[in-house]
């Protein structure tokens, strides 16, 4: 993070309200303390957020005095930049890309810090800490700079920018252990609770205004928790009774499914993540 | 819990991906959805069984081509340790990937296919591991199932590779016979190789000592970022890359040389009593001095080299070949300086480990270069400090990282290999060549003959050594002071460190020439019998010995006859590819254009040859007529 602040003119920190971005904010505070975080937090809001996440976001920003910028997919739709997907599996996940790229352009951001990790998915295993994006925000897996030792090359031409992933070498378990060790507050949906859900193609989706039932589906009340908190339309829950960080760590350590395994968007095709990344997704 | 970062090298065919898949699978690091995904993909590819390699072959383009094209990182843990794998493809084109993966690794697994034995590629991987100073090497001899779990096959490969390891800089090497496919000795001990009593791969990974590569002695703190939240606070943020520091200790700032003392080491939670290698911290100092990014805080009594020119080993990583006449940006710790190539010292042929003459470096080339820098750097040799001994080169036009560099030290200004032309003999600085107390002429007068250097060149087996021995005997019997230097003999001692590459042959000739000159000055008729295949090399002794006293004898013989004679069995080995760069077979021989004497040994007896040389010596006035 310090390397980002030192090498770039206009960084920002991608903030989703999920546990990884909360860890990122915590690390940023520590990196620059006693000075404030020298760049704004950018939240790309799909409009389909869990309310708990937004509440925590606003409280945190107020507490640490950070600058928060919110850009919504709804604005992009209203301005005709993107068109809403239709059908029962409609998701704004793909639409975020346009909103994100527009926001980065508007902020003249030359770097965006993200909490993505290489253990999340195969296409991310080769991601760099400093990941180069061309003028169109695109990622070319064949045109990434080699990263050696702890030396990071953030030199760029005007218009190009970097995605920077300080947590690249962390695993999901590392994140949870760090949250426990540093007592970082996270949204309540990560902990076990009762909620109305529907099971669709093996994914448990939470009841909300943006999901309509298909024939034969019914809302059921179950004890669940979320392993990631993205867009409500595609973030799956798991059946769990883990109600404390210690229990979550135990559950993650013995888990049989990766956290992205509960996300419907990745199951669309085997190379789904790679395709999204090429277009500018995180 | 400690962390071990290791890298794996080997080609697709060595079963590298299968080994990693096996490690992840048997250590329960594979999740159910990942397993199901590869189950689906295995079915699509029609491989029949579950293909564990699919776990690691990440990108779509690679899967389609069936190869891995970049460094992929994997994570797993056992109750003992966490692991980060830098999985690098071992293909010849992918030297740069292995260098990248090796730069942060503490251990390298080198895979060898038990059926193929030690290939050039296995040596290349070992060489890169030694160049990057990876502390531990694990040689996994894979596919033991396909050689019937044979102990003999295993031992043979171990012996071969050990022989190689002695020639490079590797401290710790462990061999393990495995079958990644069947799982033998990967996680579980194999019951099919009861002759092997060592650890399994995972056991070794869990128990090998970590942290040895880290320098805990020399405190180095490259300033990364300056924190100035208000008038009362000025903190220097950075990572302690080596050594440690505590409040109250004396420091000096480079390059300005300003001295001060550490006031405090601060963090969000509390002040820190001692910051150690690897810690990212904020340091405040007692005096009000201005320090910026790219400067380095060190101890007063333990400073790095401050230099504007460095010698470094580099690995070229760009598709565009290196241009020696341009400017690069050299990024070293948090400091960027402009750099130009002062001198290409050599390029390493990493298959033969020969040092070669070079003008440029292409993708994946490795070699040594002297750089001139626009501003000073604060460096340590890479072998004592990876952090302050490493750098990258950036092309200022494309901004791409084009090379990785490992610093040997401040430049020694050594001449390039193979470029020691007759006009530029290396001269040791500070040494003056005084005339000898007893001049050669005095010695010649007393012994009754002149000194000379007879240089016999020709193919192996042409008869040089035989003629030289007979000649020396004849001269010695006549009371002539003689000395003979045989090409094979010097290879055992004086030149025992040299290979048969072009560059090393040149060095060999230079050393023999200088040795011959010492004997020449002492008054001897010095007989040198060396293949010495290159004209340019033979120009060297001719240049340093006075005209008329250097006599080049071309011992000429038909190649087929030499092959038939083959007195040392070398041609057979060369034809079997056991010897590389063998003159006449796989390396050229340039015959002399104007030798003082031509001896065609397929037409002359040894005695006749000796007669002709003696006759020449007489004609030249070097010796009196021998009755």
3D structure, described in words:
The complex is a heterodimer of chains A (282) and B (627). By secondary structure, chain A is of the alpha/beta class. Chain A has helices at residues 2-7, 19-32, 51-64, 73-78, 96-106, 172-182, 245-253, 272-279; strands at 11-14, 41-45, 68-72, 111-113, 130-133, 161-164, 193-200, 203-206, 220-226, 236-239. Chain A folds into 2 domains: 2-171 and 271-279, HUPs (Rossmann fold), CATH 3.40.50.620; 173-267, no CATH class. In chain A, helix 6 runs antiparallel to helix 7. Chain B folds into 4 domains: 3-207, 3-Layer(aba) Sandwich (Rossmann fold); 220-299, Elongation Factor Tu (Ef-tu), domain 3; 305-410, Elongation Factor Tu (Ef-tu), domain 3 (Beta Barrel); 440-619, 3-Layer(aba) Sandwich (Rossmann fold). Mean pLDDT of chain B is 85; it is low at 419-425. The chains are: A alpha/beta (282), B alpha/beta (627).
List keywords for this structure.
heterodimer; A: 282 residues; alpha/beta; Rossmann fold; 2 domains; six-stranded mixed sheet; four-stranded antiparallel beta barrel; 8 helices; B: 627 residues; Elongation Factor Tu (Ef-tu), domain 3; 4 domains; six-stranded antiparallel beta barrel; 15 helices; globular
Helix-strand makeup class of chain B: alpha/beta
Q: CATH class of the largest domain in chain A, anyone? A: Alpha Beta
The tally of helices of chain B reads 15
Coarse structural class of chain A = alpha/beta
Shape designation of chain A? globular
Q: Report the major sheet of chain A.
A: 6 strands, mixed
Average pLDDT level of chain B:
85
CATH hierarchy class name of the largest domain in chain B: Alpha Beta
Query: How many strand segments of chain A?
Result: 10
Number of domains of chain B: 4
Which parts of chain A are unreliable, with pLDDT below 50 for 5 consecutive residues or more?
267-271
Strand content of chain A: 15-25%
Strand order of the largest sheet of chain A: 3-2-1-4-6-5
What's the count of strands of chain B? Answer: 26
Tell me the CATH architecture of the largest domain in chain B: 3-Layer(aba) Sandwich
CATH level 3 topology of the largest domain in chain A: Rossmann fold
Q: For the record, what is the CATH homologous superfamily label of the largest domain in chain B?
A: P-loop containing nucleotide triphosphate hydrolases
């Amino acid at each position: 993070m310090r390397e980002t602040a030192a090498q770039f003119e206009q960084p920002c920190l991608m903030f989703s309200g999920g546990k990884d971005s909360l860890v990122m904010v915590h690390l940023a505070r520590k990196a620059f303390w006693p000075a404030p975080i020298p760049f704004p937090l950018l939240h790309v809001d799909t409009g389909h957020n869990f309310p708990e996440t937004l509440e925590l976001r606003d409280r945190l920003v107020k507490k640490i005095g950070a600058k928060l910028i919110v850009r919504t997919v709804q604005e992009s739709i209203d301005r005709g930049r993107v068109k809403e997907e239709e059908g029962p599996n409609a998701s704004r996940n793909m639409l975020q890309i346009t909103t994100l790229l527009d926001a980065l352009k508007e902020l003249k951001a030359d770097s965006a810090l993200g909490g993505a990790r290489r253990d999340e998915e195969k296409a991310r295993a080769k991601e760099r800490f400093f990941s180069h994006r061309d003028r169109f925000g695109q990622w070319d897996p064949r045109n990434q700079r080699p990263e050696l030792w702890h030396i990071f090359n953030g030199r760029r031409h005007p218009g190009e920018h970097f995605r920077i992933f300080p947590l690249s070498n962390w695993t999901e378990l590392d994140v949870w252990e760090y949250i426990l060790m540093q007592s970082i507050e996270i949204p309540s949906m990560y902990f076990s609770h009762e909620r109305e859900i529907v099971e669709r193609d093996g994914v448990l989706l939470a009841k909300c205004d943006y999901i309509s039932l298909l024939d034969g589906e019914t809302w059921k009340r179950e004890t669940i928790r979320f392993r990631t908190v993205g867009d409500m339309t595609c973030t799956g829950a798991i059946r769990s009774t883990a109600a404390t960080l210690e229990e979550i760590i135990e559950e993650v350590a013995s888990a049989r499914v990766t956290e992205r395994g509960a996300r419907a968007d990745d199951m669309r095709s085997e190379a789904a993540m790679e395709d999204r990344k090429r277009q500018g997704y995180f | 819990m400690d962390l071990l970062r290791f890298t794996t090298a080997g080609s697709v065919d060595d079963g590298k991906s299968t080994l990693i898949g096996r490690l992840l699978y048997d250590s329960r690091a594979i999740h159910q959805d990942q397993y199901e995904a590869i189950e689906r993909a295995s079915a699509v590819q029609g491989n029949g069984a579950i293909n564990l390699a699919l776990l690691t072959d990440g990108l779509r383009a690679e899967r389609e081509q069936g190869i891995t094209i970049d460094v992929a990182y994997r994570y797993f843990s056992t109750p003992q340790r966490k692991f980060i794998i830098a999985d690098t493809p071992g293909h010849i084109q992918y030297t740069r990937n292995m260098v990248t993966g090796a730069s942060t690794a503490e251990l390298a697994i080198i895979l060898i296919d038990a059926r193929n034995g030690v290939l050039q590629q296995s040596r290349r991987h070992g060489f890169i591991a030694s160049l990057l100073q990876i502390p531990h090497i694990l040689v996994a001899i894979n596919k033991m199932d396909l050689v019937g779990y044979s102990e003999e096959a295993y031992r043979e490969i171990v012996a071969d590779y050990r022989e190689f390891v002695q020639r490079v800089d590797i401290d710790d090497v462990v061999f393990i016979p495995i079958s990644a496919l069947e799982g033998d000795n990967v996680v579980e001990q194999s019951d099919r190789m009861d002759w092997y009593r060592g650890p399994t791969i995972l056991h070794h990974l869990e128990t090998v000592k970590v942290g040895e590569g880290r320098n805990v002695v020399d405190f180095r703190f490259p300033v990364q970022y300056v924190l100035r939240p208000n008038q009362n606070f000025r903190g220097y943020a950075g990572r302690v890359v080596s050594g440690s520091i505590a409040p109250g200790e004396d420091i000096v700032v480079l390059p300005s040389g300003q001295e001060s003392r550490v006031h405090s080491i601060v963090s969000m939670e509390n002040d820190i009593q001692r910051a150690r290698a690897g810690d990212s911290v904020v340091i405040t100092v007692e005096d009000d001095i201005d320090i910026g990014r790219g400067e380095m805080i060190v101890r007063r009594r333990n400073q790095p080299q401050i230099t504007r020119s460095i010698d470094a080993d580099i690995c070229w990583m760009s598709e565009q070949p290196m241009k020696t006449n341009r400017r690069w940006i050299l990024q070293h710790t948090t400091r960027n300086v402009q750099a130009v190539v002062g001198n290409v010292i050599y390029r390493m042929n990493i298959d033969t480990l020969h040092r070669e003459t070079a003008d440029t470096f292409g993708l994946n080339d490795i070699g040594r270069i002297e750089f001139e820098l626009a501003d000073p750097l604060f460096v340590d040799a890479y072998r004592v400090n990876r952090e302050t001994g490493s750098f990258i080169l950036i092309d200022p036009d494309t901004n791409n990282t084009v090379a990785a560099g490992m610093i040997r030290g401040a430049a020694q200004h050594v001449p390039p290999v193979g470029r020691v032309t007759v006009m530029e003999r290396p001269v040791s600085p500070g040494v003056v060549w005084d005339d000898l107390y007893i001049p050669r002429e005095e010695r010649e007068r007393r012994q009754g003959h002149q000194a000379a250097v007879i240089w016999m060149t020709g193919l192996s087996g042409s008869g040089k050594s035989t003629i030289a021995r007979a000649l020396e005997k004849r001269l010695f019997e006549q009371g002539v002071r003689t000395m003979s230097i045989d090409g094979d003999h010097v290879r055992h001692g004086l030149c025992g460190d040299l290979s048969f590459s072009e560059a090393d042959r040149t060095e060999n000739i230079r050393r023999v020439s200088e040795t011959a000159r010492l004997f020449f000055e002492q008054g001897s008729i010095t007989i040198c019998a060396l293949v010495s295949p290159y004209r340019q090399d033979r120009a060297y002794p001719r240049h340093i010995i006075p005209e008329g006293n250097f006599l080049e004898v071309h011992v000429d013989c038909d190649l087929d006859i030499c092959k038939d004679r083959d007195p040392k069995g070398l041609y057979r080995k060369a034809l079997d590819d056991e010897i590389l760069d063998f003159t006449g077979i796989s390396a050229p021989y340039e015959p002399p254009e104007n030798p003082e004497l031509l001896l065609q040994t397929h037409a002359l007896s040894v005695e006749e040859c000796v007669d002709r040389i003696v006759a020449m010596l007489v004609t030249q006035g070097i010796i009196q007529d021998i009755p």
